[in-house]
Amino acid sequence: MSTPPPAPAADPDLLAHATTVLDVLRLTRAPGGGPPARRELDAFHAHTVALYGLLDSSASACQLTDPKTARHLHAARILLWQAADQLHLAYHSRSAAPATPPPARPHPEGRTVLTICQRHQLCTAGVRRIATPADLRSPFPDTPTP
């Protein structure tokens, strides 16, 4: 078994960025303006999957040195996958999907941007390696008691 990669450094400004985004949404969205657009649901899904990846690397990094914390992070990963799954379903229920998949958009750094379905399939494959089907359906994944 290989050694897990080191966890990426956390962005100290992440909370400030998230708070700013929430403030912008509150100011720009009209009261009673309806549900979020598909592009917003896609963005929410992308952020949820990115957070899942961050927790995945953190849980892997502390699994041998701090198993109790790793179990809590394991439960958090499952809850994030459940949130991503619901966002994926909301995206598809928002309006009819296009008849043909959109072409892959180039990413500014040269790599291809994944569609929501591709991103969700990759995340689902990852969570299935660490969780049972019962864990994925449970509203409260098993966590150790303090």
Shape verdict: globular
Q: Number of helical runs?
A: 5
The amount of helix comes to: 55-70%
Overall number of strands: 0
Strand content: under 5%
What is the succession of H and E elements?
Answer: HHHHH
Mean pLDDT: 77
Unreliable spans are: 1-8
Oligomeric nature of the chains: single chain
Largest sheet: none
Structural class: mainly alpha
Backbone CA Rg: 17 Å
Overview of the molecule:
- This protein is mostly helical and 146 residues long.
- It has a domain at 35-97 and 104-137.
- The chain is built from five helices and no strands.
- The chain has helices at 14-28, 38-62, 67-94, 116-130, 133-137.
- The model is unreliable at 1-8 (pLDDT under 50).
Keywords for this entry:
146 residues; globular; disordered N terminus
State the gist of this model.
By secondary structure, the chain is mainly alpha-helical. The protein has 5 helices and no strands. It starts with 13 loop residues before the first helix and ends in a 9-residue tail after the last helix.
Map the helices and strands.
Elements: H1 14-28, H2 38-62, H3 67-94, H4 116-130, H5 133-137
Helix pairs in contact: 2-3, 2-4, 3-4
